[in-house]
Automatic annotation (TrEMBL):
Major place of residence: cytoplasm
Keyword Cytoplasm part of the UniProt annotation: yes
Catalytic activity entry: (6R)-5,10-methylene-5,6,7,8-tetrahydrofolate + glycine + H2O = (6S)-5,6,7,8-tetrahydrofolate + L-serine
Originating species: Pseudonocardia charpentierae
Name this protein carries in UniProt: Serine hydroxymethyltransferase
Function in brief: Catalyzes the reversible interconversion of serine and glycine with tetrahydrofolate (THF) serving as the one-carbon carrier. This reaction serves as the major source of one-carbon groups required for the biosynthesis of purines, thymidylate, methionine, and other important biomolecules. Also exhibits THF-independent aldolase activity toward beta-hydroxyamino acids, producing glycine and aldehydes, via a retro-aldol mechanism.
N6-(pyridoxal phosphate)lysine found at: K292
Amino acid sequence: MPIDQPDLIVERYLRRLGGGRPDPAALTFFASLDQMRSVDPLVADRVVAELVDQRSNIKLIASENYASLAVQQAMGNLLTDKYAEGSAGHRFYAGCDNVDAIESHGADLAKALFGADHAYLQPHSGIDANLVAFIAILATRVEESFLERLDVKNVSALSDEQFAELRTELHDQRLLGMDYYSGGHLTHGYRFNISSRLFDARGYTVDRETGLLDLDALRTQLHEVRPLILLAGYSAYTRKIDFAKMRELADEVGATFMVDMAHFAGLVAGKVFTGAYDPVPHAHVVTSTTHKTLRGPRGGIVLSSADYADAVDKGCPAVLGGPLPHVMAAKALALKEASQPSFQEYAARIVDNARALADGLQRRGARVATGGTDNHIVLADVASSFGLTGRQGESALRAVGMTLNRNSLPFDANGPWYTSGLRLGTPALTTLGMGTDEVDEIADVAVEVLRATTPVSVNGKPGKAKYETEAKVVQEARARIAALCDKFPVYPEIDLSIVEG
Ligand code: PLP
């Protein structure tokens, strides 16, 4: 039963405006809080608390951003009620005309923005996008020829024995992706992920000395492994990659070239990565998330050449069920936003800010992997620079108002839980309007705090999680970060004093 609310936040907002014109985004946000409160106030309160948290801490998580309120609010609509299994114009349910229109429009926007032959908007996340791509490549490269050999139209016409034979053939394929500890993603063949159970997965690493991807070494490995799929893309690598060259290498061994651009899709959309560094003209299949540098809703997308299009569109039933039409609506809005000239300026500023962050850290004595960055990520080595684990660095910085994540460095002696590194990213703070001066201030505060932080021993051994930071440094750092947060508020359209009453 709805809970009675004597005083609606929306009414308070309108009273405060005194007849002035309401901001549609603020009005919708306040109305949605009223709706949530009428059912379960805890949920509404936590939404407000999250905004307070994000307003009082600088977001340096490289995989996060702030989607526009139009994108946010598109996700909270009645399209969520609709089942639309299948693909646009080819559904297993009646009444899908509006979902068809939204999905086709979003796919057209994606094709135009990235210059792709084909776009598939349904994956619910980056992991799903990669699963759709893997299954589509297996279907196109392995299953189709198996069926042709037996002169059979589809798998339902196979006997149980023939299907078992196909399964063995599907299972016998190799994937060569960037090793998790060199910056690749879980889905690129990590032992604990389904990718390494679906494929005989092998990993290529970065060079131990330089931290850079070595395409000559990769070529040698590629000829040894001869995989079905050569997979490029990363979650923690800071340099641009020559995708034109990688495609040449893939062609030498007849591999399908797949790129997971989840992290840097916004830099491709914003024309920072062009020519050989733009994966779309060179890869057979490109996957992405929509919520990182691309600044859209949480979700995934697959782009492909025409050869893989039919198989990609069969994401459902292969690995997906019903799509999320409300999220596809939000993806279409985000793709439209990313098609505007202002997005190109945004993408260029992300990289300027990341370079300023890497420079600022290094000038103050922090070691940065590969000596800098070409993208939105900076990997700082807190073990060699400050004698800390990544876990201690992450906690010490969060305590002064910086949200970021610890990350393994290549060949990390501290393993994936404690780590030796911090991954810092600039997409979110760039969305807020911060520039290189603010980023330099952030680098200064971060180094001051890390320098003033020491591991606390546990049972006589240096602790990997416990730490202490000098109180005076913490106090000063908090004040400096708070000043930046006040100057660059998150979603300034929303005046939280109205919620507080
Ligand atoms: N691919 C890459 C390169 C990523 O960095 C990530 C997420 O961090 C993913 C895929 C998975 O995305 P999601 O968390 O949406 O499943």
